[in-house]
Amino acid sequence: MTYTIAILSIFLLIWILSLGLNAFFLLLGLRWAKVEEANFRRAFKASIVMFLVEIILVLGQRYFYGSGERPVAEELVILAMQIVGLLVVTRLFFGTGILRSFQATLPLFAAGAISLAFAALIFVPFIAEAFVVPTGSMAPTILGRHIEARCKTCDQPTFVSASHDHVRSQQESHGICVNFHSNTFKDKRGMPNEGDRVLTAKFLSPQRWDVAVFKLPSDPNINYVKRVVGLPGETIFIDEGSVYANGQKLTPPEHLANIVYSDSSGSLKAIHGTKDNPATLGPDEYFMLGDNTERALDARHWKTGVPGRQPYAVPESHIEGVVTTIYWPVDRWRSFK
Fold first, then answer.
1. Segment 140-193, tens digit of pLDDT
2. Which three-class secondary structure state does DSSP give residue 131?
3. Is the distance from CB of 4 to CB of 325 less than 8 angstroms?
C-alpha cells in the first residue's frame, strides 16, 4: 500500500500543478481577450470546473462507447464536446461572448501540450504507467476479458476467459476461481467484463512474487504481465506443484497459498523450468509465471527470446514496471504494494 499511496500522492501533486498551469494560461487568454475582472483565483476555479466537465465527458463516452478503440468520427465528436465545455465554463465564469470565450481558451492548448510533454518525458518513463490486461493468464489475481461463474469445487467466484484469442483456440472454456481451483465449462455464455486496468511503478526493482509488466522477449512490441518467480542468478524448476530455486522449495506468500504450479498449459507441455530441464538465469534475468498456471503462456513455453539469451529469460531492461494497483473497474480496486 505504501507505494500506491506514494504514486497517488505524486499524481495528486501533479494534478494540482496542472490546474495551476491551466489557470495561468487561461488568465493569459482572458487578458488577451480583454476580459474585465480576470484574476488568477477565478481562473483557477474555472479550471477546476473544466476538469470536472472533462471527467463527466470521459465517463459518458465510456458508458456509451465502451473502453475499446473508437472510429475517428466519434473521436472528433468527443473533441468538439470538450471544446464546447471549455467555452461554456468560460462564458459562465466571466460573462464573455462566444468569440471572446474562444479567444480566452486558445492558450489552454499550450497548457495541454506542456502537460502531455511532461507525461511523455518524465511521468511515464520514470514514475508510473497504466496498462490494460487483455487476457486471463494472471487470473484470479488480475483479470483479463472474462465471464463470471461459480466454482464447481468451492462455489466461489470463478473467472472464465473471454479473450478473443481464447475463444478462437479453445472449444471448452477454462475458468479459475479465487481459491485457484481449475474449472472447465463446455458452454459458458454471458456478458463479458473488460480486463483490469493496472498501475505500475517504474522506480521499483522487481522482487520475488511481485507482479510485473514487461516486454515479451521474442517481440518487444508486446507487453506481458506475469509474476516474478525466478531471480537473477538462480536455477528454477517446477516439481509436484511447487517452484524450486537453487534446489530449495519456495513458499509463496499467504495470498498465493493455494496455487499449484503446473508443468503444462492446456495441451502444451512445459519446455523450460521443469525438473528435467531447469531454467538457469543470468545476472540480470528473471523467470516469469502466470497465476492461471494451466492456461498461461509464460516463460515455461517460450521458444524464442532476446538474441544471445535463453528463451525463458526476461532481462531487467525489458521490465516496464512493478504492478502496484488495480485502479479500474472500481469494484476491482486493490493495492499490491
1. 999 998 999 999 999 999 999 886 544 444 567 889 999 999 988 876 667 788
2. strand
3. yes
Please tell me whether residues 211 and 85 are part of one structural domain: no
DSSP letters along 193-227, please? BPPPEEEEETTPPP-TT-EEEEEETTEEEEEEEEE
Which secondary structure element, helix H or strand E, spans residue 269, and what is its range? Answer: strand 268-269
Domain limit, last residue, from 110, 126, 142: 126
DSSP state of 177: E
- Domain around 22: 2-126
Residue 192 in domain: no
CB atoms within 10 A of CB 4: 19
pLDDT in tens, 99-149: 999 999 999 999 999 999 999 999 999 999 999 998 899 999 999 989 999
Handedness of CA 165, 303, 228, 237 (dihedral sign): positive
Phi, psi of 206 (to 5 degrees): -65, 135
∠ CA 69-71-76 to the nearest 5 degrees?
Answer: 110
Domain count, the chain: 2
Q: Is 125 helix (H, G, I), strand (E, B) or coil?
A: helix
Give the CATH number, domain containing residue 225. Answer: 2.10.109.10
Q: In this structure, are residues 153 and 311 in contact, taking their beta carbons and an 8 Å threshold?
A: no
Domain assignment present for residue 142? The answer is no
Residue 258 maps to a domain: yes
d(CA 252, CA 243): 9
Q: Of 126, 161, 178, which residue constitutes the final position of a domain?
A: 126
Which residue pairs from 252-256 have beta carbons closer than 8 angstroms and sit at least 24 positions apart in sequence? 252/209, 253/209, 255/141, 256/180, 256/209, 256/291
Site of grid cell 463470471: 148
